[in-house]
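for the writeup, i need someone to sanity check this before i put it in the appendix. the sequnce is what the collaborator sent (i think, or maybe the updated version? ugh). structure was predicted straight from it, no edits. if anything looks off just tell me and ill rerun, i have time this weekend
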Amino acid sequence: MPKQPLHKRFFIWRIKHVSEKNFTYILSGLVGLLAGLAAVTLRNITFTIESALDNLVVFSKNQVYFILPVFGLFLVYLFTKYVSKKKVEHAIPSILFKLSKRSGLIERSKIYIPLITAPLTVGFGGSVGLLGPAIASGSAISSNLGKLFHVNQQTRTLLIGCAAAGAISSIFKSPIAAIIFAVEVFSLDLTFASLLPLLIASVASVLTSYFFLGDDLLFNFNFSEKFQIKDTLFYVVLGVGTGFASIYFTKMYFFILKFFERFRSRLIKLIIGGLAIGVMLYFIPPLYGEGFGFINNLLAGNHLAALGTTPFDHLKDNIWVVIGLLIGITVFKAIAMTTTFAAGGAGGIFIPTMVMGSALGNVVAKIINNLGLGFNVSETNFTLIGMAGLIAGVLHAPLTAIFLIAEITGGYELFIPLMIAVSMSFIIKKNAIDFTIYTKELALKGELLTHNKDQSVLTLMSLDSVIETNFVKLNPNMTLGDMLHKGVAKSTRNLFPVVNKNKALVGIILLDDVREIMFNQALYDTTLVEDLMHNPPDIIDYKNDSMKTVMTKFQDSNAWNLPVIKDGIYIGFVSKSKLLTAYRRQLINYTTT
């Protein structure tokens, strides 16, 4: 008897000796390790490119900024057109779509594509972050691991959450914030069944980061200024400011993307976007790349180093000029970031959000300290809390914002002002715009997973799985006799769709509609189907109706069966009983994750 392949023998051994729960723990640790490795690789490649270009920037006195973004975006264009042959996708929205409509299945190519396109974009000056691509690569790794080991959809979703937590944990060395991010953004249930795998992945990833990068931290500063109750009102002001800045950030993002849609050619988008970024970089160098150096200099109290070399260096002795330049960074970071995306670049929005928030927080503190009214607040604290306020507002992730800053500072001294500013920012943004950059498109289509179990179960359901096609179709010109012999006699259903020669639904007939006349032979040749048919209580649009809409149509119409139309053509019926059965089955699977 021939030996079974090694992987099949492993599956059999695993099923016999390792429980599903323990195997999930093992996979979560492996995912965390690999996601951390992907994040470290991404960071090192990008920093290598930036270091290689540093001397060129200094030698050219910033004039090379005009061409660097165009060159980097052109390399991304060449790679995506001739090598990967896949267009650049925004990481988190793409993953959320895969979770809701593709059962968490992500193409293998998404493992390495972000590791190439993101460093080329950021390393050559694109004003975006690396966290999104790190999560994209890690999520692709976890999805394909899940596929390799034949885990179910719920476990695959959890592993993708583990990859997201691992990427954040590796980049920021903040494992608690990483877990909360996965829960808030990917709408995972915070139960013990999900918490422990997230914790394992987060720890494995941060250990990977320590192994390869040592004690090197993204933010190097000594936290020494505690919260003072007299500054409470100023933190409220900062929270309100970050709330309105979050609205600006989000609206500017969609405005610029819509503006670039008018250019059909990718090369035209690339040239216009690249040159626009170059101009912004020349006048505001801190917009280059991710911006961690800018944040670190602000935290160290060195705003001159943070601003770098600009055409306005001779005016930097005036604090109000410095404030003006910082306001410029606050305003233009969102513009530079979105222009990078619109021009074809790859990256994330999390870190640009932090850069914009740090600039805004520092501006508010400097204005308070220089109004001449005798007030004195901590610029470092306001810089940190500005970052948290923008994260909470832009991403709708308030708990992530609070715990990320708490872990960055190494303690919880700023917990109270963090809660004040974050809650204010989140409330203002949430009331003004209910969606985020991540979720708008999916939310409008009804394809977004949320913490609402009912909504999420409906989102995960597929209309294809409940469509029934075993209905005998009738022609409107059929006689009653033909209908009875060719339709009723050959059908096991009591419902008949009436379609014309173009296969479009023109009506329906119920067996009850003809019960009283079906034995009256005098009507067999004189009565036509079109005389008996009537409109259905409602119609399901295959392309445009979400499962939530389908449920609502059944509820409002009190129908037991509704026809499904695709591009005007009849394709089948959905029955209420089958729909509810599928819903209950999906609910059981979802709640046992």
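The longest helix spans residues 20-59. The mean pLDDT is 85.
thx in advance!!
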